[in-house]
Amino acid sequence: MRRLAQGEASVGELGRPFSMSAPAISRHVRVLESAGLLIRKKRGRVHRCRLNPRPIQEATGWIEECRKHWEARFDALEKYLADWSEEEE
Amino acid sequence: MAEAAAQTEELRINRTFAAPRDRVFAAWTEPRHLSRWFAPNDQFELNVDVDLRAGGSYRIEMNHQDGNRHVAFGEYQEITKPERLVFTWSWESGIATGTLVTVEFIDKGAETEVQLTHEKLPSTDVRGEHGKGWNGCLGRLETYLAA
Questions:
Q1: What does the pLDDT look like over B53-110, one tens digit per residue?
Q2: Residue of A33, A34, A80, A86 to mutate, interface with B, max B Cβ within 10 Å
């Protein structure tokens, strides 16, 4: 994933840093592809791969929305607790 | 590969509140308090039901003044008063189901630190399978949260 973040690569290039067999590399690439994280194009016998940024952006977006959700609730709790202690004075 | 999926599954938030721990714990567990601070904003009115025991369930109905209603519900997995709450969190609309929230309350004298962990959020693998369905969900979530 990190190598793909730098740009397109062939399946062979992707596997080079790892001491994995060619079929094992292909298997990994297929898994990433079916998860929607990687897009593969064939040029003759060479398969070029690039990152599909959308799922990661979407996942990150989803987590960030969730975080904003909770932060807003924490803001409300802060106010609520402040009002509560004021009522007692 | 595994790293990318794991990173998207959990979030953590900490904040310190100027109130003693018993009070903060009560705010999180009693309907009369929850109904007054748990809304996303002032335009919502809440109905809250809580059965506060391990295995007990809660239901939070958020009624927007425009007429929209959003319901969150779940089950308490652990209640250790006044230190910790663990509960599942699901939206009735199905946007997220079976996520897990852990809230820890740390005594700091006149103050309380709250540490919230929200996990089992949908991972990239799950989304890969649902494809278009998921995009629709995210669109609805955006609209929902903007309400």
A1: 999 999 999 999 999 999 999 999 999 999 999 999 999 988 788 899 999 999 999 9
A2: A80
Q: What is the count of residue pairs from A and B with beta carbons less than 8 Å apart?
A: 95
Q: Do B3 and A77 touch (CB under 8 A)?
A: no
> How far apart (Å, rounded) are the C-alpha atoms in residues B125 and B80?
34
Distance CA B64, CA B47 (A): 11
Best CA proximity match to B46, nearest among B35, B54, B37: B35
Give the separation between CA B64 and CA B46, rounded to whole angstroms.
9
pTM score, whole prediction: 0.66
Interface residue B2 vs chain A (CB under 8 A): no
- ipTM of the modeled complex: 0.77
